[in-house]
Design goal:
The protein contains 4 helices and 2 strands. By secondary structure, the protein is α+β, with helices and mostly antiparallel strands. The protein has a two-stranded antiparallel sheet. A hairpin with a 2-residue loop joins strand 1 and strand 2. The protein is elongated and about 35 Å long. The protein starts with a helix and ends with a helix. The mean pLDDT is 90.
Length: 71
């Protein structure tokens, strides 16, 4: 399940200092283990940063995506 994958990534990050790149639309799940996010639109990076930084983005798409993870 997605939860098992996120838990595994979190354990790897904590126990082995593993860095990973995860491509997902599940911002809520990714918040459990991600320090930073890159938001893509039409294949282009439109914003990068920590979750809290992205909530203040000038880009409406970014703000809507991040806001959807806070419910």
């Amino acid at each position: 399940t997605a939860k098992e994958i996120y838990d595994l990534l979190l354990r790897l990050k904590k126990n082995r200092q593993v860095t990973s790149v995860v491509v997902t639309h599940d911002v809520t799940g990714a918040r459990k283990f991600a320090d930073e996010f890159a938001v893509l639109d039409q294949g282009r990076i439109v914003a990068c940063g920590a979750h809290d930084e992205l909530t203040r983005s000038d880009n409406q798409l970014v703000r809507e995506l991040i806001a959807g993870s806070e419910t």
